[in-house]
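Rotation project, supervised by the postdoc (A.L.). Task for the rotation student: set up a whole-complex structure prediction and record inputs and outputs verbatim in this book. Inputs entered:
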Amino acid sequence: MDKKLTIAEIRERKGSGQRVVVLTAYDAAMARVLDSEGVDIVLVGDSLGMVLLGYDSTVPVTMDEMLHHCRAASRGVQRALLVADMPFLSYQVEPAEAVRNAGRFLKEAGCDAVKIEGGVAMADTVRALIRAGIPVMGHIGLTPQTASQLGGFRVQGKDLAAARSVLADARAIAAAGAFAIVLECLPAELAARVTRDVAVPTIGIGAGSACDGQVLVTHDLLGLFEKFTPRFVKRYAELAPQVRTAIQGFRDEVAAGRFPGPEHSFAMAAEVLARLDEEG
Ligand code: KIV
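Outputs recorded:
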């Protein structure tokens, strides 16, 4: 069994040249694949609201939904760190509530850390979580839970004031003790500047190649989420068309009586069958 990665080992990647590889998983099967392929951090992202649950945004995702999927993902992970995304309004109201909710991901769902969105305004909450013994990953730049306040899903930090504010957010979250910070949808130059500026690994998504690690939504990179593809996603596979072809094959073979064939069926001993026939 591979040794579990630690928070300290992720922090030590900073400046080491060894990038942190992060992907999302919402169930044990996918988490097992990511873990066995050497992904360092498995993130149970609240993106599951859009990718799996059919919501239009991550805002409606609940604690119960996140806990359910975190428990499942935790059964598939041995080496990777398992990070739970805290859903909207589970941590913003007050730090004590954030601690109570975050603690559930560690106590009840086998997670190693939580991720929360927000910069300067969340620094006290990050401190409270860490005081309670809960490791925190930050998430700044485009924060999907509050995207409507940011003018929608668009690149952040483009003008001087906005870039300064992103830097201030990164510094505040790093100073509060986060062990890593996701930088979402930032100009590559600004992400590089933040990466030089803070002492913890930055994990980019739409933030250029200078970050200390990268994250994508696994369903996006596999081409399984067909609704839209952000510019920053590279599709390493196109699985949705293959899934469709497979489903069509099953549908047509069932309709034509070609599935199951003898190779997918079980036979009965001839004498048992003969007795059954005798008995009518
Ligand atoms: O919810 C999520 O999957 C995320 C990643 C895209 C960083 O927050």
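Student's summary: The longest helix spans residues 160-176.
Supervisor addendum: The mean pLDDT is 97.
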